[in-house]
Design brief:
This protein has 402 residues and is α/β, with parallel strands linked by helices. It has 14 helices and 16 strands.
Length: 402
């Protein structure tokens, strides 16, 4: 499928959703979004675009699409629900709980599952021939939908670029097209090795790095909400002070955990090297575990670059603005060091998200990409997951058809 055909089909489907939204008398929507930098940019885009249309928007930031949270969100009837940078990997779960009740729009770039409810529309650009690994971010998907809603939302292009900073190797594919458009319209301008958002007078990469801290480290103390506002109103002194406070807290936790791992080492198997973070990140969002695993994957004196890095952390039971989860949950994050990525690309080993899907089949809630993925599950399944990861990786050549 060519880029022109793929993008035109996305825009056609996006306009159908826009028509459906405008045909309804309901002028309120619920927006569910991820807690990383891309998720905060995505939330700011969708919220701003909907509010320009006169909608009252209720927001909920989630680290994961927890089963019981998703169920509660879809108990209403004739509501409008958006998932931003979240949802595609759980489109089957969302479909099951929605059961034809509410118009649900997913704007995401994570590996998608099929939708089974016609009222659940997944506009993930992976369905249109693009790669969520390299061609677009969740915020880019949200931006293109916002433009389908109203061309004047092109002023939000800088947020698509900021969110896309999570994708390595620069702006490519659709992200490159957004960059060229933003430069032409004067929304951004070159600034050093990056680009400055003219509205905010801030570099998009600097905005992204601060959002990563606000959303992840500050998840339980209003960080995501503060970050989403900063996307539209700028990096105020209040925001900068909060980022500095949170970053110092994370650095200290990272230092303590790294020191412990140098002393004790990781649990090493044939294909995976694992560790449990314990309570070192207490009070922070679990996204910090993945960020630490990414950092750890480059520590050559500590990790084997030819094995998956697998970290665990317990999930706090409280979901801000929602309530308390039932049962004790844990989160696992997987990262593939650079040399291992070559084996993944050749099909010799499974990608991170494939690995976790198969290893936690029947008990895990998984999302992610080829080189980075995460899963949540009952806290008593940690040892079983490690065992399953080894089994899946060892038998992978026999699973290439899956």
């Amino acid at each position: 499928m060519s880029e022109r055909v793929s993008l035109s089909e996305f825009l056609r489907d996006a306009r159908k959703v826009v028509d459906e939204i405008r045909s309804r008398s309901v002028k309120a929507a619920t927006l569910v979004y991820h807690d990383d930098g891309d998720g905060l940019c995505s939330a700011a885009i969708v919220k701003a675009a909907l509010e320009h249309e006169g909608y009252a928007v209720k927001t909920l930031c989630l680290e994961k699409a927890y089963d019981e949270v998703v169920k509660s969100l879809h108990e209403g009837v004739n509501e409008i629900i958006f998932y931003a940078d979240l949802g595609s990997s759980h489109a089957d779960l969302i479909s099951r709980y929605n059961a034809g009740r509410n118009l649900t729009v997913i704007l995401d770039h994570h590996d998608p599952k099929p939708t089974k409810d016609p009222k659940v529309v997944d506009l993930n650009l992976e369905h249109y021939g693009f790669s969520g690994e390299s061609d677009f971010s969740g915020s880019t998907c949200c931006y293109l939908f916002a433009k389908a809603l109203d061309e004047r939302n092109s002023c939000l292009a800088y947020l698509a670029l900021a969110g896309s900073c999570e994708i390595p190797n620069g702006f490519r594919g659709l992200n490159d097209a957004v960059l060229k458009e933003a430069l032409k319209e004067g929304v951004v301008r070159p600034k050093g090795k990056s680009f400055e958002a003219m509205k905010l007078r801030a570099r998009v990469d600097d905005l992204f790095s601060k959002l990563q801290i606000l959303g992840a480290v500050g998840y339980y103390e209003g960080g995501p909400e503060l970050g989403a506002k900063a996307c539209l109103n700028g990096l105020t002194e209040e925001v900068k002070a909060k980022v500095e406070e949170l970053e110092e807290r994370r650095k200290e936790a990272n230092r303590r955990l790294l020191e412990r791992l140098y002393q004790e080492g990781l649990e090493e198997g044939k294909h995976v090297q694992s560790f449990d973070a314990g309570d070192v990140f207490k009070g922070m969002g679990t996204k910090v575990l993945g960020q630490f695993c990414s950092f750890l994957s480059y520590q050559r004196r500590l990790v084997n670059p030819n094995k998956y890095v697998l970290g665990f952390v317990n999930v706090p039971p409280n979901v801000p603005s929602w309530g308390k989860l039932k049962g004790a949950l844990a989160k696992a994050s997987v990262r593939a060091p650079d040399p291992l990525r070559l084996k993944i690309d050749k099909g010799e080993l499974p990608g991170a998200v494939q690995l976790l899907y198969l290893a936690s089949e029947g008990f895990g809630l998984v999302d992610g990409h080829r080189y980075a993925a995460s899963a949540t599950f009952s806290a008593d399944k940690k040892a079983e997951l490690v065992k399953n990861v080894e089994r899946v990786a060892s038998s992978w050549p026999l699973r290439l058809s899956l």
